[in-house]
Amino acid sequence: MIQTIGHRGAAFLEPENTLRGFRKAIELGVDYVEFDIHRCKSGELVVIHDETVDRTTNGKGYVAELTLQQLKRLDAGKGEQIPTLQEAIDCCRGKVKMQIEIKAAGIEEDLVAASNGNSIAEEAIVISFYHDFIKKVKEIAAAGKIGIRTGALIVGNPVNAAEVVKAAKADFLSANQSFTDERMVNDLRKAGLGITVWNCDTERDIKRLAALEVDMIGSNRPDLLVKMLGRK
């Protein structure tokens, strides 16, 4: 069965990367909630996609230059605050699995520790466009005898997708749905590797990727995704 992912919670339905959005995705019945993490000035890991707060809040400035106290004063949409990683875990744990995207360097060790400490390491998937980050996550986890899965994010269709995943010591390719085709899926299958795709936001895209029998499909429209593929 193809598993469903609510991208940034339910990004087209509720403010992205907020607890409200996560709760909506959970209510709809997705298998995973996906969200992004940065580190703020005071050291906490916080859930936000961009390196600045400008697009998704009523504030301005770089996340890395703002303290958690400053970030919490901002409106991330419909009165929601920017969550911490711990708040996101508390919201999702026991209800839905998590796909966590690392957006900046220096987060890997704290993320592995948080995943292990909250007993979600076996269920969470850590992804990033920066493949060195997920490679480091694997190395840290292996040193601590912690089982954790990772996915190498890409945009495009490489000559050998399996080699991209292997070089990052990852378990999955996390591919943009526009570039995902039968050859890519078959190459990964032959290598014993998984594939998750993002973001299928129309019936046409969902049908096409479902026909390729990928492992997971992410969408900003988890309502449509769950309607077409079924609840977990």
What features would you describe in this structure?
- The chain has 232 residues and is an alpha/beta fold.
- It has a single domain, classed as TIM Barrel (Alpha-Beta Barrel).
- Helix content is 34%, strand content 19%.
- It has 9 helices and 9 strands.
- The chain has an 8-stranded parallel beta barrel with strand order 1-2-4-5-6-7-8-9, surrounded by 7 helices.
- Strand 7, helix 7 and strand 8 form a beta-alpha-beta unit.
- Helix 1 runs parallel beside helix 3 and helix 4 crosses helix 5.
- It starts with a strand and ends with a helix.
- The model has no long low-confidence stretch (mean pLDDT 97).
Short description:
Helix content is 34%, strand content 19%.
By secondary-structure content and strand pairing, the structural class works out as alpha/beta
Shape-level CATH architecture: Alpha-Beta Barrel
Enumerate how many helices there are, as a single number: 9
Q: Helical percent range?
A: 25-40%
Radius of gyration: 17 Å
Task: Estimate the global geometry from the Cα principal axes.
Answer: globular
Note the run of SSEs as H and E. EHEEHHEHEHEHEHEHEH
The largest beta-sheet arranges its strands as 1-2-4-5-6-7-8-9
Which CATH class is shown? Answer: Alpha Beta
| Low-confidence runs of at least 5 consecutive residues | none
Give the total of domains.
1
Mean pLDDT: 97
Number of strands: 9
How much of the polypeptide forms β-strand, as a percent range? 15-25%
> How would you name the CATH homologous superfamily?
Phosphatidylinositol (PI) phosphodiesterase
User: Cα distance, first to last residue?
Assistant: 9 Å
Q: Sheet with the most strands?
A: 8 strands, parallel, barrel
> The CATH topology, please?
TIM Barrel
